[in-house]
Amino acid sequence: MVRAKTWILKKQFDGFPERSNFELKGEELSEPKNGEVLLEAVFLSVDPYMRLLSSFGMKNGDVMIGTQVAKVIQSKNPTFPIGSHVIAPCGWRTHNVCCGEGLIPIMRDWPQDVSLSLALGAIGMPGLTALYGIEEVLGLQRGETLLVNAAAGAVGSVVGQIAKIKGCKVVGSAGSDAKVAFLKELGFDQAFNYKTVGSLEEELKKASPDGYDCYFDNGKLRSPEHITKDFENMPAAFIGMLKGENFGKSIVAV
Ligand SMILES: NC(=O)c1ccc[n+]([C@@H]2O[C@H](COP(=O)([O-])OP(=O)(O)OC[C@H]3O[C@@H](n4cnc5c(N)ncnc54)[C@H](OP(=O)(O)O)[C@@H]3O)[C@@H](O)[C@H]2O)c1
């Protein structure tokens, strides 16, 4: 029998959460039955949508919603052999018994020198969001100039780099001077701290006086991650992300 740790939503919050809105609990898990697997969390994703869903889609006492990279440690489902990894919508839990529904297998030949945490970041949903937004929503073309908000975060940091590879000029806005420096390191053409600029309109004109047009560069995509250690720190990582402490994708490593 395995004892899982879970973080529950103790008290719904309006606006900004505090540590006291969450409670760490234990949960006894039964052995997996036929068709089921026992999962162990390796990396947990920390995302902005958690605030919205905890207000509208959850009630007090529910396990916090979320996605993780998990390892299959017991299996009675041949699709998910022991030792394989999956993306699992298990919420803020260290362990979970579930049938295979909703699990996304991670390819078995995942390169050893690439962290599996990237399946929650640049190679996962935030990376796809960045690519889809650029290609399908914006239809961004070489030579165009792009402005990115929350540019130092999971999606924004990838958006800016893809736009650079496509030959665009990229201007990023972020919430601290350290993030502005970080965006320059990633190759953004211009970056500014939206919290300290006098006039946003003037700053935007200064960043691109010619009306936001073009520059070409090329390079490798970096996938910055902001890793917090230990499952016990899930609320701290979530609150920190909402305060803007993350550079790149916010992840908790178990
Ligand atoms: N991750 C995904 O797969 C995904 C998918 C679809 C849509 N989205 C949406 O894309 C946006 C960015 O997501 P992300 O995953 O890349 O998050 P993120 O940028 O990694 O983290 C959130 C960042 O947003 C800023 N922020 C936090 N609270 C804020 C507030 N109340 N008002 C304004 N800015 C705030 C902070 O940066 P500063 O310090 O720079 O302010 C913080 O670091 C979100 O709206 C999210 O819902 C994400």
Question: What is the total domain count?
Answer: 2
CATH class of the largest domain: Alpha Beta
Shape: globular
Main pleated-sheet profile: 7 strands, mixed
The radius of gyration over CA amounts to 20 Å
Highlighted features:
EC 1.3.1.48, NAD(P)-bd_dom_sf, 254 residues, seven-stranded mixed β-sheet, ADH_N_2, 2 domains, three-stranded parallel β-sheet, binds NADP nicotinamide-adenine-dinucleotide phosphate, 15-oxoprostaglandin 13-reductase, Quinone Oxidoreductase, Chain A, domain 1, Rossmann fold, oxidoreductase, alpha/beta
Textual characterization of the structure:
The protein has 254 residues and is α/β, with parallel strands linked by helices. It has two domains: 2-121 and 225-253, Medium-chain alcohol dehydrogenases, catalytic domain (Quinone Oxidoreductase, Chain A, domain 1); 125-207, NAD(P)-binding Rossmann-like Domain (Rossmann fold, 3-Layer(aba) Sandwich). Helices cover 24% and strands 27% of the residues. It contains six helices and twelve strands. The chain has helices at 49-56, 125-138, 154-165, 177-186, 200-207, 234-242; strands at 2-9, 22-29, 36-45, 68-75, 85-88, 95-99, 104-105, 145-148, 169-174, 190-193, 225-229, 249-253. Helix 2 crosses helix 3 (154-165). The relative contact order is 0.16. Bound molecules: NADP nicotinamide-adenine-dinucleotide phosphate (NAP).
